[in-house]
Design goal:
Length: 320
């Protein structure tokens, strides 16, 4: 986050098209679409390019999506069409498709980052919305066992409800808990916490999860790090920005000795949309299980506060 308030928050949305520009060729008024968390630049990439995200409040970038309307440039490339109409839509299915815009795609991609193969065991550090959907994705893709690490019991209960094994790091060292069940370690570990990682005393310790993942991952295994870790200067919109150190302590010796691999970074949801859309449309996936509340826009400030206290898992904002 950054910039100067106020700005519109959020970078996940689903809805229908109310108007189109003259250059839009593949979409029409009334079409239902998911707005990806980032905008296409409309050009062919000859090499990887960074994404431009909605709703981060940074100068000269995109506004957010927690609003009745949003203007999406380069719509043909940026929007994800979904098979809904005014007659067939309902709140539940809209919530399923909404997760394509970021968190389901990100959770799914985290496994690719780790090199996942069917039959692998997986440890997911963090059981917020992305972590829960990473665990859900692992189970959908044929993981042998999935461990979900967190300290908020309601989130661990939700992880258990989909078949993951809950690990509360306040009770005992999560590495010890997992290794007691997987003596040789898990083949894949996924980080879904990022720069706000906490230790067992619930104090910020940004490098604790990478140390735990290296310790718990099997020889030759892989680590996917998709928890946001982005240091930046203080700004009116992010007065504690500089409290995030740009560097962490990395257990390089153990990492090298175990021949591990690591991939980190953001995800382009459009890359994963076809397979995830098919899973939802066919009824094989219901990612909206993460939802803990549906609210109107006027209720959002209080729910931001309750989410920050760990009282919510995923809050959906519904416009009538």
């Amino acid at each position: 986050m950054g910039g100067t308030p106020p700005w519109t928050m959020g970078h996940e949305a689903v809805g229908y098209i109310s108007d189109v520009g003259s250059a839009v060729s593949s979409l029409a008024v009334g079409d239902y679409v998911v707005i990806s968390d980032s905008q296409s630049h409309g050009e062919l990439d000859l090499k990887p390019e960074p994404q431009t995200y909605f709703g981060f409040g940074l100068p000269d970038v995109l506004d957010g999506l927690q609003a009745e309307y949003a203007r999406v440039q380069l719509a043909d490339q940026s929007l994800i069409p979904i098979p809904l109409t005014h007659e067939t839509t309902n709140t539940a299915i809209e919530q399923d498709y909404l997760t394509l815009s970021d968190i389901f795609a990100t959770g799914w991609a985290s496994l690719d980052f780790a090199g996942f193969q069917p039959g692998d065991s997986v440890a997911v550090f963090g059981s917020g919305p992305v972590g829960l959907l990473a665990a859900y994705s692992a189970l959908l893709r044929g993981a042998s066992r999935v461990y979900a690490v967190d300290h908020i019991q309601s989130r661990l209960d939700r992880a258990a409800s989909i078949g993951a094994i809950p690990i509360n790091f306040r009770d005992q060292d999560p590495v010890a808990q997992i290794l007691a069940l997987e003596p040789d370690g898990v083949m894949r570990s996924v980080e879904c916490v990022g720069m706000e990682a906490l230790n067992s005393h619930l104090k910020k310790e940004s490098d604790i999860t990478i140390k735990q993942m290296v310790a718990v991952t099997h020889y030759g295994g892989g680590i996917g790090y998709i928890g946001v870790f982005k240091a930046h200067v203080d700004s009116p919109g992010a007065p504690l920005g500089s409290s995030i150190a740009p560097d962490i302590t990395f257990p390089m010796s153990d990492f090298w000795e175990k021949s591990l691999s690591l991939r980190a970074g953001g995800v382009d949801p459009r890359e994963y949309a076809p397979i995830l859309l098919d899973l939802i449309e066919s009824g094989k996936a219901h990612p909206s299980f993460i939802g803990s509340a549906v609210v109107e826009i006027d209720d959002v400030p209080s729910y931001y506060a309750s989410f920050n206290r760990g009282e919510e898992v995923k809050v959906f904002i519904h416009f009538p």
